[in-house]
Every structure is written in C-alpha cells, then in structure tokens.
Amino acid sequence: MEKKPIDISFLGRSTLDAAQQLLGKEIETVIDGEVTSGFITEVEAYLGSNDRAAHTFDGKVTKKNAMMFEPYGHIYVYTIHGHNCMNFVTTTEQAEGVLIRAVEPSIGQNIMAERRGRSKNLSDGPGKLTEALGINRNDHNGMHINGTILKIYGGKTPKKIEATKRIGIDNKEEAVDYLYRFIVKGNPHVSRFKGIKDIDNGWK
DNA sequence: CGTTAGATCTGCT
DNA sequence: GCAGATCTAACGA
C-alpha cells in the first residue's frame, strides 16, 4: 500500500497541541535520492514572543529566526555550536514552532549510520537527527512540509505522552520550568534517556 | 574587526 | 557530571 502524507492543518492551530500530535509521526526525507525516515519520539514547543526561551521572544526578528514568522508548514533550520536543528513552524499569526528533538530510525538506517559515522545513537538528539536525515540549513531552511524533500506520514501512536522541562535553556529564567517538552514514554530514542525501556518502545 | 551567546555533541572522569 | 570542540550570527567599537 502506498503511503500518503498526512494533512498538516493541525499545525495551524495550537502549538502545544501540535507538538503532542507530532509524536509518533514518521518523518521521511529524500536527499540526493537516498530515502531515510524515523518516528518522532521527542519534541519541544516554543511559543514565540511569550516564551523567554524561544529565539522569537518579545517579537524580536533577526536574520536567523525570520523563518519562524512564516505561516505553519514551513521548516525552520538553524545552526548552533556547529550543529543543525529542525523546527516545524506552527500557526499563522504567531512566531511559534515545534523543535524536533529526536526520532526512532526507520528507513535507511544504514545511510544514517554512514552520515553519522557510527551505528548507535543515530538520532536521539536535535543535532543528531538532522545529520542522520541529511538536513542542513543552507539547503533546507524555509522548505515546506510535504514538499519534494520532506514528508510526514501517520506513523505510530504513543501509548503515553510524558511532559517534561525543556533542555539546554538553563539561563532562561522563568521559562526553564515550562513543561513544553514531550516524549514518548518508554522509548529509548530520546535525548538523555534515563527511564525504563518499554517492551514496544512505548508505541501502541 | 573582536566579543559573546546560543534550543549541542562527544568523550572522559 | 563536566570540559572542550566547533560554527554562525548578532552586536558594539
């Protein structure tokens, strides 16, 4: 059966809802004719001007974050510490988005291993999954979801979603306590995994 | 220019 | 758990 990309209109409504709905979705990229995909296991929501931890806090527009002000369906890729991170832009009016922090490798694991130069921990972190899926800022910042390069499919359904504090924003005052990070409970393909691995990796 | 901050990763202790 | 690597863009002189 041929897979069909899903309707992404849910990204246009609530960012927090969209973040949770993205868990389990399958991201597929086609880079230089090579297909790779993974199921989303970890995301973080960034709520634009109201969120001190977001690049777009206080409505500040820079060359780097300008893509966040585009309507939902665009992809915002930014570089940090020599790594790339990928966001799905949400809503139309606000500069909000969902950071894809980790995926469970599916198609093309051998390609991911080659790109990463290792066979373990292929995509359990924001900088890792972009490298595994072949995403870079030069070529892919501003592209559209369900365009020619990146598509998302229905994928799997998490048994239980866990909300935790976000990671790497220790200097963001009150925003450090917001529970805007969502993971598939029991799935080991998340950053800083410490829990107990579920028998089905947390999928239904 | 030079300095600094940033939603990171890896390896070592 | 912590230090070091590594790179881009913003900002001030």
UniProtKB/TrEMBL annotation:
Enzyme class: hydrolase
Family: Belongs to the DNA glycosylase MPG family.
InterPro entries recorded: Formyl_transferase-like_C_sf, MPG, MPG_sf
EC number: 3.2.2.-
Transmembrane parts of this sequence: none
Biological process according to GO: base-excision repair
Species, as recorded: Phocicoccus pinnipedialis
SUPFAM superfamilies, alphabetized: FMT C-terminal domain-like
Keyword DNA repair: yes
UniProt-listed Gene3D superfamilies: Methylpurine-DNA glycosylase (MPG)
Alphabetized NCBIfam families for the sequence: 3mg
Entry keyword annotation includes Hydrolase: yes
Protein name: Putative 3-methyladenine DNA glycosylase
GO molecular function, a single term: alkylbase DNA N-glycosylase activity
Keyword terms: DNA damage, DNA repair, Hydrolase
Superkingdom assignment: Bacteria
Pfam families (UniProt xref): Pur_DNA_glyco (PF02245)
